[in-house]
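Morning F.,

Quick status update on the modeling queue. The single chain you submitted on Monday has been processed. Sequence for confirmation:
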Amino acid sequence: MANMVMFCILAVVILGSALMCVATTRIMRAATFMLFVLFGVAGLYFLLDYTYLGAAQISVYAGGVTMIFVFAIQLVSKRTLQGLVERINVSRVIWGGLLSLVSCAVVILVLLKNQFLYVAMAMPDEEVPMDKIGMSLLGADKYQYVLPFEFISLFLLACIIGGLVIARKEK
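Structure tokens below.
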């Protein structure tokens, strides 16, 4: 019962912070709300007793990526930080919505094709041993995920490049 209450609290914090992150026009507030989202996801990992993944979430994402965003924000001009933003471009909103719908459809199709949902519903009380999770994340064999850790380095590099693009001088 206590786990369900904590899950509900974390879910409300994550969803509320995510909505506020994308809805606010102030860039520092968006970075703060994003930090709350990342800490909430780490809280979910700790709630599931996956302390390694929770610590990785805090150190890599909540620590590293948020610091990169804060440094990028500090390099942005003062006009942008004072809340002067560009007007909403309707075509960007439409393309963003279409891209979101296509991405959602792809995720749903992958879940249905690989029968992840059916397997999860068939054995909800079985726990996956921690050594199996570790081997899946760090192994280099087929269906093992050493690749996501390589993508994390590319993701951090993309964040740095994005910060530099934001910080460049406008003509």
